[in-house]
Amino acid sequence: MAYAELAGLPAYVGLYAAALPPIAAAFFASSPYLQTGPGAVTALLSLGALLPLAAPGSPEFMGLAALLALVVGATRVAIGFLRAGSVAYLMSQPVLQGFTSAAAILIVGSQLPGALGVQAPGDGVLGRAVWALGQPGEWEMASLALTAATVAVVFLSRKIHPLVPGVLLATAAGLAFSVLSGYQGPRIGAIPAGLPPISLDLPWTALPSLALPGVVIALVGFAEAASISRTFAAQDRTPWDPSREFVSQGVANLASGLSGGFPVGGSFSRSSINRLAGAGTRWSGAVTGLVVLVFLPFAQVLAPLPRAILSAIVIAAVVTLIRIPGLLRIWQFSKPQALIAWHTFALTIVLAPRLEQAVVLGILFALGVHLWREMPLGLDSWTEGATLHLAPKGVLWFGSAPGVERVMRRSLAAAQNVKDVAVHLGGLGRLDYTGALFLRDLRQDAESRGLQLRLEDVPPHAHRIVRSVLDWEPHRDEHSQDSADAQHSQDPPHAPDLL
């Protein structure tokens, strides 16, 4: 319910998103522990995607949220069926760390007005948070006390034992306080009785506007589910299938969209509790959904719950995700990777609430840095007798070929009393088609100068392309290596390293 409000939806929509989705996911899940439902980051991404299209809390907004869940679901199912689960690793750790810390700051900021019991003006998340903090005279003391008590109960329960239900205890205490004291501050209010409505009557004309956000949420939201499942699979030494998990998470979102919910994903905290409680199969998630379904007809008992309780629950859940020291430590290990992390962090803050744009730009920037680092190619050159030796080191691809071509041609032109050229390729990590064409042109250039060019130490991975493009045949020892490679290619594959 708290995450539904974070997404700009009525609180009861969170119950819809926690009912059918985990039941649907259980039929396809790969991890026996993964708990599917509303989550903080996914909720904030959903809010950013929907704000330009409708007013939060309106019927149009709710319809768009359900349609967005269908887009997310269809994307994940397609990725799973195409066995392309490895796409989940497209987000590098620096991008993920920068985005997560910035998103957590935005989430905490979005909850401050509710936690302080004020109605902040404006639309910007941080602007409203700053206004709320700057108006202490407007704070409702009861809301402030409830927020502090809720955060304290949640954190204290974690210290006692992970299975102590701090959120449940805080909710029960807040509900009892509201009923017994006649609390008249901001409350949840009326909750529709009955099961979730199943409907496809959605604003389909808005589908093009939700395509990009839906794909981004499908990938970013899956990162947490993938991390949870991989971690537990490694600890249990059991296999885990990311493509299958994509399908399970996709089906869960389809169920959420059909039942009036919003995008959902895996929850690290709930999955950890599920594992500690002794869950042994994926059907534990289905039990969770069934419990929520049974509770829905009686959900009206939560109507008096103060909204400050929900705001405090969200704050307590995400404040630990603000890891500025971790971002600073990246600088010690790799300045380019730190630049990626802080670039993504800044974009997430500046572009809020359009967080999907920040994610896309962060990924593109990370790819750009990677390509930039692959551009330089080392080159050692020396002369032995009448032979000029050239030894490129790195990756010879279309990006690095022009630079190394200039250096090698200069070395060739400057060579005196040289009769042949030996190009040593043993230091190449990869050779693409453009790089092979460059070597062919270099050989032709050498022959035009009356020099004989030969290739030495050609790595096995480059044999095929060099043979095809340069009409080159390996020496006898390299023929032996080819035979060994062919023999290895027929060996049965090793089991994947789960770590």
Summed up:
This protein is an alpha/beta fold and 499 residues long. The protein contains 21 helices and 7 strands. Strands 3, 4, 5, 6 and 7 form a 5-stranded mixed beta sheet that branches. Strands 1-2 form a two-stranded antiparallel sheet.
Verbal overview:
This protein is 60% helix and 7% strand. It is of the alpha/beta class. Strands 3, 4, 5, 6 and 7 form a five-stranded mixed beta sheet that branches. It is elongated. 44% of the residues are buried.
Tags for this model:
elongated, 7% strand, 60% helix, 7 strands, alpha/beta, 5-stranded mixed sheet, two-stranded antiparallel ribbon, 499 residues
How do the helices and strands line up, and which of them pair or pack?
Layout lengths: L1 H5 L6 H5 L2 H7 L9 E2 L2 H11 L8 H23 L11 H24 L8 H9 L7 H20 L5 H16 L25 H30 L5 H17 L6 E2 L1 H9 L6 H13 L11 H12 L5 H10 L1 H17 L3 H20 L3 E7 L2 E10 L4 H14 L5 E5 L3 E4 L1 H16 L3 E5 L6 H8 L5 H15 L9
Parallel strand pairs: 4-5, 4-6, 5-7
Antiparallel strand pairs: 1-2, 3-4
